[in-house]
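Whether sequence alone determines local backbone shape is best considered at the level of individual chains. The sequence in question and its structure tokens are set out directly beneath this paragraph.

***
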Amino acid sequence: VQLQASGGGLVQAGGSLRLSCAASGSISGISDMGWYRQAPGKQRELVADISSGGSVNYADSVKGRFTISRDSAKNTVYLQMNSLEPEDTAVYYCFANRLYYTDYGNPVAQKHWGQGTQVTVSS
């Protein structure tokens, strides 16, 4: 699975950005997709994810401001970020979880990562 992220940039506080992440390659078996972020000196944290069935999950810090969505036909996940704050400044990484089966029929979940995209929010 290859993931290509786009949409980062520089925006003033209160502004909006939309991130996109398109999956290609061996996409059968992809379940959850979503976004993590990592700010300088901090651990990578989950921002939002969405299941293949459309169930969503958000970090408390972005609830009400960010919206994750998914276009299964395009194998693409989006993150609409509104009311951005300087604390949202980070490198954002998209991911996709893919379930596949070993030769013995055992299910294995594998996480695939896109390249990071920088989001900078100025005060």
